[in-house]
Amino acid sequence: MDPLADLVDWIALYGIVGLLSIGLAERFVPALPSHGVLVAIGIAANDDAWSVHTAVAGTAVGSFIGALALYLLVRAIGETKSVALLHFVGKWIGISRQRIDRALSSLRAREQSIAITSQLIPTVRLISPLAAAILGTSILRFVSGMAIGIALWNGLFIAAGYLAVMALPDINSSAFALKILALLVFVEALIAVTLRLQLRCSKQAWSSGDAQ
């Protein structure tokens, strides 16, 4: 049984429109495992359902349209309502209010780099367009950063699926996606621990400096 392969078979029926649609859908359906779908799309590219370039471009454009729509929506409704919306969405996808507030503070300090890197972090990538709009990030900066981040995210997992099926022709898309998810969770946890340690060391250095 391979649910992701079945989903990709449906996407393949509609070609580029299917790729655009699934890229758009992952922005609005948190339950849809973006990394898993992209891996399965990469596997299908090896079966000549589409080329790797077409798969990356189609899904990236769809995802970008979704992100831009969220950004423009938040800019239109104002900051107060947008923050409340961001907290609601965060609760829905499992991100605490405190984590969202910390992310907003971090975004204010490093808007351009965060616009790119936030697209490489599961769950956070879904709320980053909302956060960018709340912070008043210029549309040019948002568009450039988001485009790069989405291209990296989509390209990474589509390439992983494409290369995996070359090495293991009978690979199960869903099983491989679960392994990728476990790796993502591990890497995200490792990054979080590293950042906390760096922050703690910085605070200790400032305390030592004040004491002297």
Topology:
Blueprint: H1 3-13, H2 15-28, H3 34-46, H4 52-77, H5 79-93, H6 97-109, H7 111-117, H8 124-134, H9 139-167, H10 173-211
Helix pairs in contact: 1-2, 1-3, 2-4, 3-9, 3-10, 4-8, 4-9, 5-8, 6-7, 7-9
Q: What does the model show?
A:
It is a single chain. The chain is mainly alpha-helical. The chain has one domain. 84% of the residues lie in helices and 0% in strands. The longest helix has 39 residues, at 173-211. The chain is globular, with a radius of gyration of 19 Å.
Offer a concise description of the structure.
This protein has 212 residues and is mainly α.
Any key phrases for this structure?
single chain; 212 residues; mainly alpha
User: Overall mean pLDDT score?
Assistant: 79
How far apart are the first and last residues' alpha carbons, in Å? 65 Å
Radius of gyration: 19 Å
Estimate percent helicity: over 70%
Helix-strand string: HHHHHHHHHH
Gross morphology is globular
* Helical segment count: 10
> Helix/strand/pairing class, anyone?
mainly alpha
- Count up the domains: 1
- Total number of strands: 0
Percentage beta strand: under 5%
Spans of at least 5 consecutive residues whose pLDDT stays below 50 are none
Major sheet details: none
